[in-house]
Specification:
Layout (H helix, E strand, L loop, with lengths): L7 E5 L4 H12 L3 E6 L2 H13 L4 E5 L5 H15 L4 E4 L15 H29 L3 E6 L12 H23 L4 E7 L16 H8 L4 H14 L3 E3 L5 H13 L21
Parallel strand pairs: 1-2, 1-4, 2-3, 4-5, 5-6, 6-7
Helix pairs in contact: 1-7, 3-4, 4-5
Bound molecules: nicotinamide-adenine-dinucleotide.
The site of nicotinamide-adenine-dinucleotide has 31 residues, from helix 1.
């Protein structure tokens, strides 16, 4: 998508972090914004701030894990603006850092509901109407570097993000084979300086430190803008993680057993849990 001005972007998880940065960056391009988040107060704060700086913003209180909320979000977007050109399925949560067998059914359900079903509901509610409108457009699903590599302790998060990557690639193929003008990207950042630790109960303190030292969300937003403009599927933002991805794939093809890495270091068997 080459033109951004006056076009309509829908962003979930827009009240914080990467979603908020996407909203701010797209507003700078003159896009009209439909912003969705489960945190109504924070969402209205972001909408007010962007509105005060001159952007056209529609905030819609949304729980992306609910099919009806995704349908309502799409209805609100088309009612207000008559079109949607850019959909960012971005809302997501992380989880406690414990071994796979200690992750509770409630954690699995919540993480998959927000991270995976959130993207599924978004695609189901928006893409048929975007196709029917017949104009060019783009869908960005926020996965993670955790969708391209694996590790111990946060198995629901890894599983959800691998599923988002696979779902996003399938969507890309399906749109291509349907002759659609819509393009797709999978956003796969590693650590980004956001409030994800505060929004994810039990978030491992060691990982919080990495998030706090992470990339600035506005730099991620810039990469997303460029990928949409250049029609790039993969948005890998942290080159230091490329080696972990490459090692995993090469090890797989060589028939080697996976070696655990936590933030690029090998954890000791005597310390099985994340602090
Ligand atoms: N921060 C990182 O290091 C990092 C790295 C890789 C991927 N990601 C992914 O980036 C995305 C954005 O996360 P972030 O880091 O900006 O976190 P964040 O917590 O700062 O922002 C996430 C937003 O999503 C909202 N949200 C949570 N559950 C929701 C729901 N059910 N419905 C609607 N909104 C909901 C939250 O209220 C919050 O405003 C997530 O998908 C996350 O997995 C983050």
């Amino acid at each position: 998508m080459k033109q951004f001005r006056d076009r309509v972007a829908v962003i979930t998880g827009a009240a914080s972090g990467i979603g908020r940065a996407l909203a701010e960056r797209f507003a700078e391009e003159g896009m009209r914004l439909v912003l969705a988040d489960i945190d109504a107060a924070a969402l209205s704060g972001v909408a007010d701030a962007l509105g005060a700086s001159g952007a056209t913003v529609l905030p819609v209180h949304t729980d992306v894990s609910k099919a009806a909320d995704a349908d309502h979000l799409a209805d609100a977007a088309w009612s207000a603006f008559g079109a949607v050109h850019l959909l960012c399925n971005n809302a997501g949560i992380a989880c406690e850092g414990v071994p796979a067998w200690e992750q509770t059914p409630e954690t699995w359900t919540r993480v998959l509901a927000v991270n995976l079903w959130g993207a599924i509901h978004g695609v189901r509610a928006f893409v048929p109407r975007m196709i029917a409108d017949g104009h060019e457009g783009h869908i960005v699903n926020t996965a993670s570097a955790a969708g391209l590599r694996t590790g111990p302790f946060v198995s629901p998060y890894y599983a959800s993000k691998h599923a988002v990557v696979a779902f996003t690639e399938s969507l890309h193929f399906d749109l291509q084979l349907a002759g659609s003008k819509l393009k797709v990207s999978a956003l796969c950042p590693a650590f980004v300086k956001t409030s994800i630790a505060d929004h994810s109960p039990g978030f491992p303190p060691a990982m919080r430190a990495r998030v706090d030292a992470g990339m600035e969300p506005r730099d991620i937003a810039q990469r997303v803008l460029e990928a949409v403009r250049d029609e790039k599927f993969w948005i890998l933002t942290h080159p230091e993680f490329d080696e972990l991805i490459r090692t995993r794939l090469e090890g797989m093809l060589q028939g080697e057993n996976p070696v655990p890495h936590v933030f690029g270091t090998t954890p000791q068997p005597t310390n099985p849990k994340l602090p």
